[in-house]
Each structure stands twice: as C-alpha cells, then as structure tokens.
Amino acid sequence: MDALFHNSLGPGSLALLFFCLFAALAFEFVNGFHDTANAVATVIYTKSMRPQAAVILSGIFNFVGVFAGGIAVAMGIIHLLPVDLLVQSGPGTGLVMVLSLLLAAIAWNLGTWWLGLPASSSHTLIGSILGVGLANSMTAGHTFGDGVDWGKAGEIGLSLLVSPLVGFAAAFALYWAIRRFARDRTLLDAPKGDAPPPPTTRAILVGTCSAVSFAHGSNDGQKGVGLVMLILIGLLPASFALDPGLGGAALRESADASARVESLLEAHADPASAAEVADVRAHLGDLEARLAGKETVDAIADADRFTIRQDILIADREVDDLIHGGHLRLGDDQARDLAAARASLRRVTEYAPDWVLVAIALALGVGTMVGWKRIVVTVGEKIGKSHLTYAQGMSAEIVAASAIGVASLSGMPVSTTHVLSSGIAGTMVAEDSGLNPKTVRNIALAWVLTLPASILLAGGLFLGLRLFVH
Fold first, then answer.
1. Do residues 416 and 220 touch, judged by C-beta distance below 8 A?
2. CA–CA gap between residue 115 and residue 410 (Å, rounded)
3. β-bridge mates for residue 328, sequence order
4. Which residues 6+ apart lie within 8 Å of 361 measured at CB?
5. ∠ CA(392), CA(397), CA(400), 5° rounding?
6. Structure pTM?
7. CB atoms inside a 10 Å sphere around CB 326
8. Which of 104, 259, 349, 452 is the most buried (most CB within 10 A)?
9. CB 100 within 8 A of CB 132
C-alpha cells in the first residue's frame, strides 16, 4: 500500500489514479448486487431463507471466495489487455484507458440491473477491455487490432459462450435424474405459502446457495483483482511489475528456471524454429542478467523491473507458440519439466497484494447485500411459467457452483448470471412447464448486445476522454 504514496505521478495524475481504483471497487460493488442475486434467488423463492439472511450469507461466502480462489482468473484479465500497452501509452493515456473501461462496465451493469435483466458482468468487463484496446489501436502510430491479446480473447470468448450451454444441459440432466430416481417426492414440490421446505431439502438449498456465492467470489472477485492489478502495474510499474515480497531464493529460482527453459529449447526444438528459439533465449538471457546477484526486488533498479516482467511474459508466450506450433519434440518428462520451469518463472509476476484482495472482497461482499431484488424477481418468477420447485433450485445451483468452480481453477472467467439462469431454464424445460418467451427473449437480447455495446461504450469513452489528455 505504501507504494501508492511513493511514486513519480504528479498530483493530478495521482488523483486520477485513486479515482480509477475507486471505480474498480465500484465495479465490484455493482457486480455484487448484480450477479449475486442469482445465487440467492433460489433460496428466497423456495422459502429456504428470508431475503435479508440469504444476502448476508451470500455476502460472507463471496468475501471468503475472493481469498480462496487463487489469482489465475485475475491473471487472465491482466493478459487480455497487454499491460505494456498502458506503459507505452504514457500515464495520462493509460489512466484514460482504464477509466474508460471501468465507466463503461459500470454503466452497462447499472442499466441492465435497473431493467431487471440478468446480464453478464463478465461479458461487460471483457467487452470494455476489448473496446479500449481496439480504440487505442485506431489512434495515430498504431495498427488496428494490435491493442488486444487475441489468443487470450479467443479463450475467454469460448469460455463465455460454452458455459451457458453447459449450464442448461447439465441442469436439465440433473433435474431429469431427480424426477426419475428421487425417493423423496417432496423435492418436486413448489413451496406452499411461506412454509419452509423439509429440513434436509432446506439444508441442501442453503448449501448450494453458499457454494454458488463462494464460486462467484472466487471467479468474479478475481476479475476485480485483475482490474486493480492492471491499474497498478500499468501506471506504477516500478512498484507493482514484480512481486515485492520475493527474496533472493525466489529470484534465484526464477533465474534457474530461465536457464532450464533455455536448455530444453536448445535440446528439443526443431531446426525450423531456430529464429524463434533465439528470440526466446535473448529475452531469458536479459532476464538472468538483470536478476544476477539480486537478493530482493528492491535491489533491482526501478527501470529494470518492468523490463524483467516483459522478458518473462514475452518469453512465456513465445514458448507457448513453439509448443502449439509443434516445434518442440518433448517426452513426458521434458514436458513436465518445461511446465514447472515456466510456472516458476511466472511466479515473479503473478501475484496480488493482500490489501488488493481485502479491498475487492469487501466491495463484492458489501455489494451483495444491497440492490439484489430486481434481478432476484426476474430469476425467481419470470424465466419459467411455473413457480420454482425445490429440485429445480438445487439442480441449477449445483451445476452453477460446479461449473464456476472448475472455471476458476482453470483460470477462465465465466458468467455466474448466464450459467445459473440457463440452468434454471434447463430445469423448466425438463419439467415441461415451459419458459416465459418475453423474459427469455430479453435475457438473450442482453446476452447478444452486452459484448458489442460494452465495446462501443468503452471505445467511445476512451476516444472522447483522450482529447482532454492530449
């Protein structure tokens, strides 16, 4: 945290930096009540918990999920918009870039929340990042499209596209199995009045709500962590480009890992990739020279820290290209050794300070406890033509918690909104109770429009605000 107060930014840029950090926390706050409404809708509409208790429980598990979810998703968000683009653009343009994507994401989230539409915060955020990257590539001195890591964008886009289909199909299958094989037929009942479900059913529903909330924190919370790190690394690279907590042993381990990667490439790369291998070795050699003899990150010159980060990220990406291009002839043992060495290298750059995790967890947890009602009504009452049954609620939430948890472990951001609402739709189809055409059409329209709308919003904001910088 002290690094925020010891930097080279002027008073105006520093104020704008803090505003960007505030906007990142505001996005996560809005994300809390926008997305977590999906998690509490089932326990509220099955009368398993009172609304106030449900949102408090959900807020607590969202808070815990941020800390337990790792940072793989956060790193995916950082790599979607290359951080070196922010640094090369200069502090002013970098701040405008981050501010534009945050304001666009918040505006679209608030708009869809006001209309009661369970749109995706993940789609919104990723569309906004793509928007500022594309808009920056339209300015003088750039080539259109060079502001985006298209490989990472493709991976994330596929994840966002497939996850709702998985949610629908898996919830359909699980609910069908419950209908077919469950001995306790009360699971198939809808709540009667304000009476709570039987104790076992109630415990399952409360447990699944907690699991979805935890999974949401571990996935969506990490998107907020990625946003904050994108701001800090891009605008204060000397302080945040490398993990400041690493000691000499960790730095030596990274240098050794770099040497292992070089050795494996030299021994197992085909002759046709000699130029690419030479480029990787140049970056790794530069990295090893800058780390030589350093016992702490503070001992590394400020100007070298972002260069080291660039060397690691570029070399890792080029190794990935060699693997996918079939240019490395590796046995199982060599492949495992290379993967371990690359992971050790990335350890220097893949981190998030504890205060960032705490700030995001608080914003998400507190946001969960307010403003949830509009989305809850849509999810609980308007997706299907009949009232949500106990089995439908638990089926949709079991599938959502599982899918989001797997995505978090693999480092892929997915939409809690789409996975859970599509899961509820799947159970309604399995029940033969029918879907509400108007609601489904509105949700589908929000799904289709979110990405292009957020791209245009963020890109337009960036080009407009950039005029005030230049």
1. yes
2. 33
3. 269
4. 62, 63, 64, 66, 67, 217, 221
5. 130
6. 0.78
7. 10
8. 104
9. yes
Nearest to 134 by CA among 417, 451, 467: 451
Dihedral sign computed on CA atoms, order 318, 410, 404, 351: negative
d(Cα 168, Cα 292) in Å, to the nearest integer? Answer: 53
Residue among 364, 423, 438, 369 at smallest CA distance from 392: 423
- Partners of 247 in the beta sheet? 296
| Residue type (1 letter), 414 | V
pLDDT along the chain (470 residues), means of 10: 60 77 88 72 81 85 84 76 59 73 87 73 82 82 69 72 84 90 79 81 88 84 85 83 90 92 90 89 92 91 88 87 87 91 90 91 82 56 62 86 81 74 82 67 72 90 80
| Residues with Cβ within 8 Å of residue 354, at least 6 apart in sequence | none
**Nearest CA to 226 among 313, 145, 122, 303?**
122
Whole-number Å distance between alpha carbons of 170 and 175: 9
Residue type, 139: T
Distance CA 229, CA 235 (A): 10
Other C-beta atoms closer than 10 Å to the C-beta of 416 total 32
Cβ contact 450:108 at 8 Å: yes
By the 8 A CB rule, do 353 and 299 touch? no
SS (HEC) of the chain: CHHHHCCCCCHHHHHHHHHHHHHHHHHHHHHHHHHCHHHHHHHHHCCCCCHHHHHHHHHHHHHHHHHHCCCHHHHHHHHHCCHHHHHHHCHHHHHHHHHHHHHHHHHHHHHHHHCCCCCCHHHHHHHHHHHHHHHHHCCCCCCCCCCCCHHHHHHHHHHHHHHHHHHHHHHHHHHHHHHHHCCCHHHHCCCCCCCCCCHHHHHHHHHHHHHHHHHHHHHHHHHHHHHHHHHHHHHCHHHHCCCCCCEHHHHHHHHHHHHHHHHHHHHHECHHHHHHHHHHHHHHHHHHHHHCCCCEHHHCCHHHHHHHHHHHHHHHHHHHHHHHCCCECCCHHHHHHHHHHHHHHHCCCCCCCHHHHHHHHHHHHHHHCCCCHHHHHHHHHHCECCCCCHHHHHHHHHHHHHHHHHHHHHCCCCCHHHHHHHHHHHHHHHHCCCECHHHHHHHHHHHHHHHHHHHHHHHHHHHHHHHHHC
Residue 267: CB partners within 8 Å, gap ≥ 6?
Answer: none
